[in-house]
Design goal:
The radius of gyration is 20 Å and the shape is globular. By secondary structure, it is an alpha/beta fold. The strands form 2 sheets. The protein has a 6-stranded parallel beta sheet with strand order 3-2-1-4-5-6, with helices on both faces. It has a 3-stranded mixed beta sheet with strand order 7-8-9. The protein folds into 2 domains: 162 residues, Rossmann fold (3-Layer(aba) Sandwich); 121 residues, N-(1-d-carboxylethyl)-l-norvaline Dehydrogenase, domain 2. The mean pLDDT is 94. Helix 4 links the parallel strand 4 and strand 5.
Length: 293
Amino acid sequence: MKIGIVGLGRMGVAMSQRLRQNGFDVVAWDRNAASAQALGAAGLTIAASARAVAADADIIISIITADMGVRKIFSGPDGFLSGDVNGKLFIEMSTLQPKTAHELAPLVEAKGARLIESPVLGTIPQVRDGKLFALVGGRPEDVERARPVLELLTRRIMHMGPAGSGYAMKLAVNLGLGAYIQAISESLALGMQQGLGLDIMLEVLQEAPYASGWMKSKIGVIKGEPPEMTLDIRTLRKDIMSAVATGASTGVPMPLSSGTLAALSAAVAQGKGSGDLGELPKFLREHMVQNLD
């Protein structure tokens, strides 16, 4: 079985390495030609286009940043569906709006192929260890067909329901993450403005009822140490924006998420979008808290 991967960012590269280490033949493509060529020089087979990946592979994974980019990968002039994809299975692993799955699934099926979405919980270390958590939407028989590939990347595969349901669950998860990071940022800003030290506050917050594994893993970054990049601020902003847009389209009010989005947007506007999420508390203290002395 040959696996195709389109989207060679941090996650896509880690997935390609994991699959190759476990015996799969992998062919890949990325719109950033320089990055793709560098990976090709390191031994990864690079195709000429997304269409070429789909032609050469049996199961094709895409992991792209934004909804519009995924639509182009599928429906663009040199995209997946511009060629013969009869019998192929597409596993779309980006974090997107549910409506994108509703749009793409019938287009893929009209070409004789199948599509599931499988956004994941976890980042680079979990990819390397095969410990992601897959949130899958699509037909049950297609999920079963994807299982041999997904099982190498994940510790658990949860079928959430029909097309769009995996994306909906991932957006719901990331809403909580965004709100949590914003709450920690504001907590630290409040305490430090009252004279509390950062180290002692972090020690206490790790014992709080809402303490999380995420915060414990980011203590060093919050203190100012260089991060091992996992998820950047710009990408979380995109996810929260997608969630707020999805809520607006279905009548779900999201005042907390809208406030979180405003803070993330401010960080992006100040040039911090490529920073790790653990750097957001420092940004809030330095750029958004007024000095009242």
